[in-house]
Specification:
CATH class of the largest domain: Mainly Alpha
Number of domains: 2
Number of helices: 7
CATH architecture of the largest domain: Orthogonal Bundle
Shape: globular
Mean pLDDT: 90
CATH superfamily of the largest domain: Uncharacterised protein YqeY/AIM41, N-terminal domain
Helix content: over 70%
Structural class: mainly alpha
CATH topology of the largest domain: Hypothetical Protein Yqey, Chain: A, domain1
Order of helices and strands: HHHHHHH
Number of strands: 0
Strand content: under 5%
Low-confidence stretches: none
Amino acid sequence: MSLLDSLNSDLKIAMKAHDKETLSTVRMLKAAVMNEQIKVGQTLTSDEEVSVLSRELKQRKDSLTEFSQAGRDDLVSGLKKEIKVVERYLPKQLSEQEINQIVKETISQVGASSKADFGKVMGTVMPKVKGRADGKLVNSAVKSLLG
C-alpha cells in the first residue's frame, strides 16, 4: 500500500470517527505529498515520500520549540498530537546508540580524523539515516565523535 493510499484510508477513518486533529493533519500530509508529486511531475518514490514526511515532521518540531519558548501551551498540545500522527507514517526512528554506531562506522570508512572532516562524514552519514534520524542528533553525534 502506497503512502497516498494509507493517507486516504486514514482520512476516511478520521472522518468517520470525527477526529478533527487527525483529520486536519492527514489532510496536510496528503496535500504535501500531492504538491511534491506535482512539483517533480511523477509518482514519488518511497525515499521521496519519506523526505516529504521528514520535512513536515521537522517543521512541526521547530514550531513546537518556538511555541514552548513563547509560552503558548494552547498550541503546544495540538502540535504534539500532529507530531504523533506524522510519526505513524515514518520508518522507525534510530536510537542514539544506533546513530553513534553508524557514525563510528562512517568515520572509519571515510578515514576522518579531525573536525575538519565534519562535512565529509555528515555527507556520507545522512543518506544512510535518511528519514530514520533527526539531523540534529546526527550532527551532535558526529561532532562528539570527531572532537
